[in-house]
Amino acid sequence: MLEPVELEMHRLQSRWTARRIAEDLLSVKVFIMFVGRSRSGHTVVSSLLNAHPNIVIGQRLRVLRYVEKGFSPHEILASALVADRRFERMGRVGSKRYDYSVPGAWQGRYLRLDVVGDADVASGPISRRPDLFERLRETIGVPVRLVHVVRNPFDNITTYSIRKKMSLDDAVEEYFRGCERTDWLAQRTSPEEWLDVHHEALLADPRATLRRLCDFVGVSAPEDYLESASGILYSRPNRSRHQRHWSPELVGVVERRMSAYGYLDGYTFEEHTGADREPTPGAGSGDGEP
Predict the structure, then answer these.
(1) Are the CB atoms for 122 and 38 separated by under 8 Å?
(2) Among 1, 32, 73, 207, which one has the highest count of C-beta atoms within 10 angstroms of its own C-beta?
(3) Beta-sheet strands, E only, within the chain
(4) Spatial strand order in the sheet of 144-150
């Protein structure tokens, strides 16, 4: 929760930025939000989008808190740029020292402002305050698009349990509570507003996935952008499931519960893991920040 002084500082920064780039904000045609479970690769995907010359995604924005406090539509859009510039000053390095920079790309600047977004995982906040999400959709002045980043549940759960220092059993419960929240939101969203992005597919064929994302938000996918964005990714995800002991019984529980969610079809614990090289955790491996 923002303290009153911090909130007022954010409002003043956003208001000043909105006035400074008022003409640029007129070209914005889409606002992106990210949904799903944390530790799925949202920061990677949002950072790759942010490398596009016509897209700015604010890290750690949590836009619904600004909606609640009555920020104007242009102040909300500008707040994403303020958050992105803040992340730029941090060197695009997250709390676990993962580097999300795309060398030679457009992070921290833009050529034309077509798409603005919030990289923070919003499923929980939206399910708790759906009224704020509806208010955002009604007042922001552009279509809202939701990007659902999906990762192998066994890796996702393991990473979450390690980061949160909780048992695998507790992490499994938390994971499927997140699935329920995401499912609840998907049922209230039209197909053109929603895109599933599988982390493993992104690593296997980054150009194809990036083209899908660009098409989803209505921008072109220049070859130089695809080349630079693809270049920071590893060839395979980090299989963090092997960092904890999974009993056969718990594996069976997860696989049975996975069957309720179509976007988890095809994921298993013992999937083929052949790859060109073993990655260390980093921007492209899936074990960075959310």
Answers:
(1) no
(2) 32
(3) 30-36, 55-58, 115-121, 144-150, 194-198
(4) 55-58, 115-121, 30-36, 144-150, 194-198
Answer yes or no: are the C-beta atoms of 58 and 113 closer than 8 Å. no
> What letter would DSSP give residue 99?
B
pLDDT class for 165, splitting at 50, 70, 90?
A: very high
Token output for 179: 């699935």
Structure tokens at 254: 């997860």
Residue 201 CA to its chain's centroid (Å): 15
**Topology (CATH level 3) of domain 4-264:** Rossmann fold (3.40.50)
| 185-221-25 Cα angle (round to 5) | 65
3-state helix, strand, coil in the chain (%, to 5): 50, 10, 40
Structure tokens belonging to residue 108: 């921290």
Instruction: Record the tokens describing residue 116, joined without a space.
Output: 């603005």
Residues 104-128 as b/e (b if ≥16 CB within 10 A, e otherwise) read ebbbbebeebbbbbbbbbbbbbbbe
Name residue 117's beta-bridge partners.
32, 57
- 263, 148 contact by CB (below 8 A): yes
Q: Exposed/middle/buried for 247, CB within 10 Å: 0-12, 13-18, 19+?
A: exposed
Cα angle 41, 42, 47 (rounded to 5 degrees) comes to 105
pLDDT tens, position by position, 35-78: 999 888 899 999 999 999 999 999 989 999 999 999 999 999 99
At residue 252 the predicted structure's pLDDT band, cuts being 50, 70 and 90, is very high
Helix (H) or strand (E) holding 180: helix 168-186
Give, in degrees to the nearest 5, the angle at Cα 268 between 266 and 273.
100
User: pTM to 2 decimals?
Assistant: 0.89
Q: Which secondary-structure segment (H or E) carries 42? A: helix 42-50
